[in-house]
Design goal:
- There is one protein chain.
- This protein is mostly helical.
- It contains ten helices and no strands.
- The longest helix has 42 residues.
- The two termini are 24 Å apart.
Length: 261
């Protein structure tokens, strides 16, 4: 009876773990979809035309500000929030990755780094919202300067653009980069360690499954988003989360042949 009970209990535990892993990766998939929507709303804009915005770009020193010369505030707000509110689902998705990679010290560190990177990502993503508002203000100040210069027959002694508006936008851009780089860097390093663990054969998935991970999938999907597609350029800035979605789908498919318990 003891052995039978132990077997039943072990089987039950395996079933529960399998169920939790399944829901975990589904949560990751849903979060990836939310982040794709968020990226499309907040950064899915065409590259600014230098013929139109060249002077403003030169003034600011970067074309990032010229993406937001005319903003749709509700679109930007929801682009920031829809991704931000879904980050608990992405973090929940790490459970499935831990179960997959717990036999590999390298993979376990990779999951830890992913958790840190994912936790930092909402701040980096949402930072585009205040940058957009400040960029619109800076562009308005520049347009006022151009109009004043034209009214004074192009004299260079006309008052320049509002320096406070320009510096406000520049400060927010610096903040965005200081938030964005650590989040992306730690996430990329985490995925690299996951690839190493998968390639080493230390997991239940086959070695070739590393070909479906975000770092490897990034190159072909980057090429695909450069091609024409309906709604372009909405997905041009969503590469990182498109490959997360591809990996989530692949993870579910691999699980059907290689159950995780």
């Amino acid at each position: 009876r003891g052995n039978s009970s132990d077997v039943m209990w072990a089987t039950r535990i395996e079933e529960v773990v399998y169920m939790l892993v399944t829901w975990s990766i589904i949560a990751f998939l849903i979060s990836a979809l939310c982040w794709i929507v968020g990226d499309a709303l907040i950064v899915g804009f065409r590259t600014p035309d230098r013929n139109t915005y060249g002077e403003f770009i030169d003034l600011m020193g970067n074309d990032a500000y010229a993406f937001y010369t005319r903003i749709d505030e509700p679109r930007l707000r929801w682009g920031a929030l829809v991704a931000n509110y879904s980050i608990p689902l992405m973090l929940a998705g790490l459970y499935a990755h831990w179960v997959l990679l717990r036999g590999s010290p390298v993979g376990t560190v990779g999951v830890l780094l992913l958790g840190i990177g994912f936790s930092l990502s909402p701040l980096a993503h949402a930072s585009f919202y205040p940058l957009a508002l400040a960029s619109e203000r800076a562009h308005t100040a520049h347009q006022a300067y151009v109009a004043a210069r034209a009214a004074s027959s192009g004299k260079e002694d006309s008052e320049g653009p509002d320096p406070a508006a320009l510096e406000h936008a520049r400060r927010l851009y610096r903040f965005l980069m200081q938030a964005w780089c650590p989040a992306i860097g730690l996430t990329a390093l985490g995925w690299l360690l996951v690839c190493i663990a998968l390639g080493s054969g230390a997991t239940a998935f086959p070695r070739w499954s590393l070909l479906l991970t975000p770092p490897v999938q990034a190159l072909p999907w980057y090429a695909l988003t450069r091609l024409p597609y309906p709604g372009k350029p909405l997905l041009d800035g969503a590469l990182f989360n498109i490959v997360n979605l591809v990996w989530a789908i692949a993870f579910l498919a691999l699980m059907s042949h290689n159950p995780l318990t």
